Description:
This protein is an all-alpha fold. The protein has helices at about 10-20, 25-30, 35-40, 50-55, 60-80, 90-100, 105-130, 145-150.
Amino acid sequence: MRFQHTHRSGFWLGFIDFFTAGLFFLLYMPLGGLQDELDYILGRRTQRYWVAYLLGIPTLFIYPLVWMSRIAEELKAKAIEMDIDGPYTSWWHMFGWNIFGLPLMGPAIATQRFFDTLNKIESRMNEILQGSRPTTRAGTGGSSPKARSTGRSDY
């Protein structure tokens, strides 16, 4: 899977979502492709956001916060596994900024770190995908075996 959105601004997404009481992500998760990307990266089908949102109504929206914090922790583990430099999102970062940082735009800060980690993972996965496919430009005939083995193109 090639990821198209590797430069999402998590701060603005979190800012908009905060002021729409989570309704923004009800549309953005499925229509923006975020839900499918998370499923692919984590290697499993994650719970749909709309289900977490509905379960959040009787729990004063604690359930979607815990749901998103768990996904943040899984993204952190994936980033570490892929040797991506931090800082990473994490369970405590997501939960803490959303609870204790509420007066300081905490949800937007937590979402910024979440999407920063997600963008790094997606960029690295695109690099891996691109590196596994030989690319040739029309008229060049490709690169020499020596150039392919060393990764240099000046042969």
